[in-house]
Write a structure and sequence with these properties.
mainly alpha, Single alpha-helices involved in coiled-coils or other helix-helix interfaces, 2 domains
Length: about 100
Amino acid sequence: MAEAAKRSTTGRVRGERLETRVTADQKRLIEHAAALQGRSLTDFVLTSVQDAARRAIEEHQHMELSLRDSQAFVQALIEPQPVNARLRDTVRRYRERTGV
């Protein structure tokens, strides 16, 4: 029975915990939102946090360029600038620090 209580709606066992402290106002707000959607507090919080995590990851993986920036990027790929002393020094310092 305890095992069944720990199962998520996908049927997977929830073996990890997240804990947080909230103000009374925050808790009332979250409870109210969950109730409006007819969901448990836990389900509402987990779904909301997962959605926020996915958005944060997507924002870091996705980049949008303006037309001017994308043209400059393509131009730099087509006609790269010659390597100068400053770039060589930067690469050298990076390799020293990272061991690459």
